[in-house]
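Exercise 7.
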Amino acid sequence: MTSNTHQAEESRQKLDALLERISNNSGAIGEFLTTIEYLSSSGTLAAVNSIFGEFDEHFSAINKPDFMTMVANGMMLLGTLSELSYEPFFNTAMAVPKVMNTAYADFRDQSHTPSLKETVALLRSPELRAALRLIVMVLRAQREGV
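Solution. The predicted structure, written as tokens, is:
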């Protein structure tokens, strides 16, 4: 047997084995082809091919330092927000519309000038003290973080 004849016989045996496997799994292959036809007719296959066709471009864009910095900042923001108690913010959000309606009317009405007594009372209010204290605490936290 020559080398070419041996190769042809070996190729024939491989092809016979493959045809037997196809014959044994014809039902599964038919279902697979039906699925491929469905994906093709619905446009899903074209979309997947498009995604894979542009994968390198999108992967390169994702690996840019600016994008990775944005992702890291987003993760830090989510981490910070997850540590905060939501109840005070929820209560504030629910009360703000009513207060804003009243405060805006007062803001638009420039006929009333607060007296010195009203101004001092405002400066001594616990709400202003708490707001100023919060601002100072945030500023200190920034200074200590440096």
